[in-house]
Amino acid sequence: MAFEGAMALFETSKQFPHAEKYSLTDQVRRSSRSVCANLAEAWRKRLYEAAFVAKFTDCATEASETQTWIEFAVQCQYVDAATGKQLSQTYDRILGMLTTMIRNPQKWMQPKP
Prior knowledge:
single chain; mainly alpha; de novo design (two linked rop proteins)
């Protein structure tokens, strides 16, 4: 879901004005991709609960940042409200899953060798 969200934002951000290339476009792409990258890192840290939870917290932070950039895109009228709402709802679902994993990490931990 995080990867699909990042790709949807990538496609949407192609329509942003060229003047936003090094600001809004770059920021929304980076934060949405960072959710995926931090998920991959978290999954590899399943032996260590504190590191695992810390990485999922990083994911949640990046997902929230992505929602902020989506709101900027809507307010600047680079994205229509319906598209912005749909994108933001994707990140609401991602945040919900991340919160569940942060609150119940034992379910996801890898057994220690």
